[in-house]
């Protein structure tokens, strides 16, 4: 990043001063800083399409079982894997070691990050290639590459030991270094991940902050650049950006109130429009009236766009023979739903309909999507098939499908570069204790995230894999890791790729001034 | 850390102990002749109160209320025994041809009670408490156990006017909470070399502090943060959580070994005897809804230092053997030196007593923490009256939480009376733009509509009453005891984006209000409203599988002379205004509804006139916001 702008340096200094103050004192001053800087930011059309897709792993992913050292299986060899195995209480065995949280060395899917020995790391066993049958009962002959293969194809990057930070911290400096408030708490750590800052009274998330800076070239302005298939989240809220929320079924219409249908429907609709068009002075009434109107306005547009221009042909494991039925995942012979894949199907359809030139008239240049998979708060029965194996299978298959869908959508649109225009990434509020609580793990801090996409410089680990000895140099007694990479640099890398001017990055991520380098280089 | 001293007595039954530092200042309204709000002055005022305090006013409840006083009505409600859920499922299961009993049957029971139960205030309180002390049947561990989840609801209903301390204890020992927040079968550290070391599960220890009692930062009585300089003060640290997690160890389903008569540390089948190894399978049945029992083998009997530096002393006995092999443990404590096997039950009893006493002591500390009163009071105010209560309102209610006027802390009956009879509840601010009141919870919109317009349940089929809605989360984003996470459907500190966030206005219910749920909720309200009625002809056919509306009192008001002339539809609109809007419908909204009747519905069937107009009214922002 260029660091030549005097005015910006002045403001950086001011920001740093403010950060040293309290959260309460921070907000009003930041407003001033924000306005001063905003004047320098330019809105412009990019003339191309880019989208971020955030996959939120809700509950705190035990990601130390997503990425595992795989250097040497021998017991007592002192290998990285041996440290891992010991710290996790030994290899899980349903009839022998129910305490244990470690994965068997030989079950890991080997990967070779740049700069490391061949196959010296492994991904969770469920990160294998995605074999499936389109309809129940069929032979599982369809096949997309899983996360381990995609890593090898340079489509996936891994980030060991990311977490919320105010500034760099080590065990030695822990007691004297400012720390994010309320570590280990679901709600607070979720908020900090979503805000890209540790002052949780900020009203905007970093997704929304990005959108308010890069989406001025979006044509259909009634559709927000921030779209959630996962309910409300501050991550997508920005200054003037009210995220649009939809379901896996798309935009939901109001039944019995069609403006064009007969019977009493059009009259009902006319009366409803009159009612919603009144002035509501109560802030809650006003808010709900706006929400309802917004929904009614967009329903028709989006329903038509998705039907006519948003069909994605990529096959997946359907729960029934009916085309478009919800998706399934099979673990150890049992079928389970996969809401993550269903959500990503809607994202793929929206991307197809939204990209400039799709024909649907949406013509968005920049979009940020949020999907969510729950169930990661694995305090209990983590290692049973319905625990982590199912979660990892859902994640792996959904991401594998999505990557194929982007290729197919690109082909449909005559835009083979589309896979390079969409970057998917994970967030999760924290990783979990390496040590077992008897049959699961508890809340911790730093953990592993991943990014997937054609633009991602993959087959690489960004950041330092920690020493997994309990209470060793990098962790506390139960294996709670002090992060070595902040959320801020991970997010700022994507913000810059989306077109946020460098001068704005430290507005969006106020703690960024404390880190060098300030981006991670996994995107151009 | 704030100086905070509470002299606790570690013994059962001594929960009413007053804080040692406590000069008691009593405020708020209690039962008595001097009560400020004596009788409702109008039907509209009565309807507004019943909107806050019940699942919705009806013509008959408005009349009943007007024949008594505010305090008299509350007294009546306090005296009603709870309508229970779990016994209903038991009766259902005993039918000659019982249905397969799942969460759907629990849902039907919940909707039946909300729509037609007489203990309305108690059930509303249970619903409010269910959104603080969250368990959820969406979790795999609970989804297969409708009896256990129903019993959890009954715990809330039975304790709705009891003491928060007792409620907290029943919740803590509920196997549903145990399974949901995983202190069920939670074990002390097992340092043995035979297996791996493990630490107690921290889940419940964390959430009971963060969500059920003290919250994350120290609070004044009016809920404002206590500041150290400019910064809030964390209420506790990670070490406090780790220490408290050791208290919640050793608990599992209650179960007695039929041979020895001793509690078994292993699980038991529904028939009540055969043990099977821990950590396999899941059973439902009696052992899954009785309070959990302590199995001292797995209980941490060492000293703990919990929140605020409070020390829970170690057990005088060594409890349990530490052979590290979980499945082979017998549940018996190690023999003390010189002790014979015959003496062992004595030590076992002492260990079990310690197990209970340490939870007592921990709950006492949390219950008496200065945060608990404002933390719980504020959320209860949010559920009944207003999303963004004034600090003074919170303080008045929290003061009653701290002392009900008779030296008792945590008296929920006194707390709900204080909430409902406070000036801030009874008199809305004169400024119509003030962020006062709340967006109605989606499920309360449904129940309010039902009750306003003659809800009737269909006849039972094999003992089962079908209300017509079993997966309300799909349309309303709410499900009784079915939140997505322990953080409920929405969080008390949710700030809707835009002007409300800019102004720092909390509005939890907006967290589940979005472009999708605005439509799905309206669509489902349509389905419930029209159950039995043809949308094309208005013809009514008695439904057997759904609650339905009886509107014969309204159809005369939309026909004949009532539908013509200058006063056309006025009587009908007056009824809608009273029952849904407690008399606050604006003239603009009234004009829209009236024009709709006059110009669009003039020739329609009377049922269609009534139901179409009601549904339109249900989408009015003036109905959707309870003020």
Describe this structure in words.
The complex is a heterodimer of chains A (524) and B (627). Chain A is of the alpha/beta class. In chain A, 32% of the residues lie in helices and 13% in strands. Chain A has one domain (41-514). Chain A has helices spanning 6-20, 23-38, 80-87, 147-152, 186-195, 206-214, 265-276, 283-309, 339-354, 388-412, 418-421, 487-498, 502-508, and strands at residues 50-57, 67-69, 109-111, 121-123, 130-132, 142-144, 156-163, 226-228, 244-245, 328-331, 334-337, 366-373, 422-427, 447-453, 460-461, 485-486. In chain A, the strands form 4 sheets. In chain A, strands 1, 7, 8, 9, 12, 13, 14, 15 and 16 form a 9-stranded mixed β-sheet that branches. In chain A, strands 2-4-3 form a 3-stranded antiparallel β-sheet. In chain A, helix 1 runs antiparallel to helix 2 (23-38) and helix 9 (339-354) runs parallel beside helix 10 (388-412). Mean pLDDT of chain A is 90; it is low at 1-42. Chain B is mainly alpha-helical and 627 residues long. Among the domains of chain B are: 167-336, no CATH class; 438-626, no CATH class. Chain B has helices at residues 43-53, 59-66, 70-79, 86-93, 103-116, 120-130, 140-143, 146-158, 164-173, 175-180, 203-213, 238-247, 344-368, 372-384, 391-402, 412-420, 423-426, 442-452, 472-476, 499-502, 515-529, 570-581, 587-600, 606-618, 621-624, and strands at residues 227-228, 231-232, 251-252, 267-268, 275-276, 293-294, 304-305, 311-312, 438-439, 455-456, 548-549, 625-626. In chain B, a hairpin with a 6-residue loop joins strand 4 and strand 5. Chain B starts with 42 loop residues before the first helix and ends with a strand. Mean pLDDT of chain B is 86; it is low at 7-33, 260-285 and 322-333. Chains A and B meet through helix 2, helix 5, strand 9, helix 7 and helix 8 of A and helix 11, strand 2, strand 9, helix 20 and helix 21 of B.
């Amino acid at each position: 990043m260029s660091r030549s702008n005097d005015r910006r340096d002045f403001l950086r200094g001011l920001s740093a001063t403010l950060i040293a103050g309290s959260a309460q004192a921070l907000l009003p001053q930041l407003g001033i800083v924000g306005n001063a800087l905003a004047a320098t930011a330019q809105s412009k059309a990019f003339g191309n399409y880019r989208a971020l897709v955030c996959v939120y792993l809700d509950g705190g992913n035990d990601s130390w079982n997503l990425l595992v050292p795989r250097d040497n299986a021998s017991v007592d060899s002192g290998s990285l894997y041996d440290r891992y195995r010991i710290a996790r209480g030994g290899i899980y065995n349903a009839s022998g070691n129910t305490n244990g949280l470690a994965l068997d060395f030989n079950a890991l899917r080997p990967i070779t990050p740049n700069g490391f020995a061949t196959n010296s790391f492994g991904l969770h066993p469920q990160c294998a290639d995605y074999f499936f049958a389109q309809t129940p009962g069929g032979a599982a002959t369809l096949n997309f590459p899983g996360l381990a293969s995609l890593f090898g194809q340079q489509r996936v990057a891994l980030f060991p030991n990311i977490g919320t930070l105010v500034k760099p911290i080590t065990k030695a400096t822990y007691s004297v270094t400012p720390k994010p408030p309320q570590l280990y708490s679901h709600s607070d750590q979720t908020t900090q991940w979503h805000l890209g800052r540790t002052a949780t009274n900020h009203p905007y998330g970093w997704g929304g902050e990005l959108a308010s800076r890069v989406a001025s070239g979006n044509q259909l302005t009634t559709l927000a650049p921030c779209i959630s298939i996962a309910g409300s989240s501050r991550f997508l809220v920005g200054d003037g950006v009210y995220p649009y929320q939809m379901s896996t079924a798309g935009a939901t219409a109001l039944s019995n109130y069609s403006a064009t249908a007969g019977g009493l429907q059009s009259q009902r609709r006319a009366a409803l429009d009159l009612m919603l068009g009144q002035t509501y002075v109560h802030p809650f009434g006003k808010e709900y009236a706006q929400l309802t109107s917004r929904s009614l306005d967009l329903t028709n547009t989006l329903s038509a766009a998705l039907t006519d221009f948003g069909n994605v042909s990529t096959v997946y494991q359907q729960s029934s023979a009916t085309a478009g039925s919800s998706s399934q995942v099979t673990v150890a012979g049992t079928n389970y739903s996969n809401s993550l894949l269903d959500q990503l199907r809607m994202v793929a359809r929206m991307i197809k309909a939204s990209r400039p030139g799709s024909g649907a008239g949406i013509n968005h240049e920049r979009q940020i999507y949020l999907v969510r998979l729950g169930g990661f708060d694995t305090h209990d029965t983590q290692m049973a098939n319905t625990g982590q194996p199912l979660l990892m299978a859902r994640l792996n298959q959904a991401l594998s499908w999505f990557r194929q869908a982007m290729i197919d959508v690109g082909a449909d649109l005559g835009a083979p570069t589309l896979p390079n225009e969409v970057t998917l990434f994970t967030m999760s509020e924290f990783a979990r204790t390496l040590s077992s609580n008897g049959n699961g793990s508890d809340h911790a801090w730093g953990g592993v995230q991943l990014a997937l996409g054609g633009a991602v410089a993959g087959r690489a680990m960004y950041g330092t894999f920690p020493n997994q000895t309990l209470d060793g140099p990098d962790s506390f007694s139960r294996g709670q890791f002090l992060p070595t990479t902040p959320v801020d640099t991970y997010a700022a890398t994507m913000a810059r790729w989306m077109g946020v001017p460098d001068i704005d990055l430290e507005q969006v991520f106020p703690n960024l001034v404390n880190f060098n380098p300030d981006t991670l280089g996994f995107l151009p | 850390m704030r100086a905070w001293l509470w002299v606790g007595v570690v013994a059962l039954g001594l929960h009413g102990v007053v804080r040692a530092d406590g000069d008691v200042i009593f405020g708020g309204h209690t039962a008595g002749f001097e009560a400020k709000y004596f009788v409702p002055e109008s039907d509209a005022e009565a309807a507004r109160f019943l909107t806050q305090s019940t699942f919705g006013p009806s013509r008959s409840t408005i009349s009943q209320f007007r024949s008594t006083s505010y305090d008299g009505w509350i007294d009546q409600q306090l005296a009603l025994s709870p309508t229970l859920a779990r016994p209903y499922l038991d009766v259902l299961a005993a039918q000659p041809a019982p249905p397969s009993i799942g969460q759907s049957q629990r849902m039907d029971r919940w909707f039946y009670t909300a729509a037609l139960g007489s203990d309305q205030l108690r059930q509303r309180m249970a619903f409010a408490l269910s959104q603080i002390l969250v368990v959820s049947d969406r979790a795999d561990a609970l989804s297969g156990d409708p009896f256990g989840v129903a019993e959890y609801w009954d715990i809330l209903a039975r304790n709705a006017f009891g003491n928060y301390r007792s409620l907290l204890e029943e919740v803590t020992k509920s196997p549903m909470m145990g399974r949901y927040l995983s202190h069920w079968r939670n074990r002390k550290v097992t340092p043995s070399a035979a297996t791996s070391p493990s630490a107690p599960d921290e889940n419940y220890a964390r959430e009971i502090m963060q969500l059920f009692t003290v919250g994350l930062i120290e609070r004044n009585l009016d809920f404002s943060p206590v500041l150290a300089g400019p910064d809030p003060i964390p209420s506790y640290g990670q070490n406090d959580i780790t220490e408290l997690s050791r208290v919640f160890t050793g608990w599992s389903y209650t179960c007695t070994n039929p041979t020895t008569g001793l509690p078994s540390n292993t699980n038991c089948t529904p028939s009540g005897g055969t043990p099977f190894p821990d950590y396999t399978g899941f059973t439902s049945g009696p052992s899954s809804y009785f309070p959990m029992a302590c199995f001292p083998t797995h209980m941490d009997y060492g000293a703990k230092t919990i929140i605020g530096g409070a020390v829970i002393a170690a057990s005088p006995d060594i409890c349990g053997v530490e052979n590290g092999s979980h499945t082979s443990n017998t549940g018996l404590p190690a023999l003390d030196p010189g002790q014979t096997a015959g003496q062992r039950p004595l030590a076992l009893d002492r260990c079990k007593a310690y197990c209970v006493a340490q939870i007592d002591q921990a709950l006492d500390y949390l219950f008496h923490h200065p945060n608990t009163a404002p933390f719980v009071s504020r959320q209860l105010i949010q559920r009944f009256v207003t999303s963004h209560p004034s600090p003074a309102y919170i303080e008045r209610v929290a003061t009653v939480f701290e002392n009900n006027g008779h030296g008792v802390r945590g008296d929920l009956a006194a707390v709900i009376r204080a909430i409902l009879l406070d000036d801030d509840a009874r008199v809305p601010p004169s400024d119509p733009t003030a962020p006062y009141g709340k967006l109605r919870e989606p499920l309360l919109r449904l129940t309010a509509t039902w009750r306003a317009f003659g809800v009737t349940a269909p006849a039972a089929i094999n003992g089962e009453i079908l209300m017509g809605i079993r997966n309300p989360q799909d349309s309303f984003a709410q499900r009784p005891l079915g939140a997505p996470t322990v953080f409920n459907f929405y969080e008390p500190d949710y700030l809707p984006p835009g002007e409300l966030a800019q102004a720092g206005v909390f509005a939890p219910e907006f967290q589940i209000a979005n472009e999708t749920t605005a439509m799905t909720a309206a669509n489902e309200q349509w389905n419930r409203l029209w159950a039995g009625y043809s949308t094309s002809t208005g013809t009514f056919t008695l439904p057997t599988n759904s609650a339905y509306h009886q509107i014969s009192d309204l159809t005369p008001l939309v026909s004949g002379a009532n539908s013509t002339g200058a006063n056309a539809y006025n009587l009908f609109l007056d009824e809608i205004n009273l029952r849904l809007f407690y008399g606050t419908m604006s003239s603009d909204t009234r004009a829209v509804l009236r024009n709709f009747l006059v110009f669009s519905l003039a020739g329609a069937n009377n049922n269609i006139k009534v139901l179409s107009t009601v549904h339109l009214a249900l989408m009015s922002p003036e109905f959707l916001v309870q003020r």
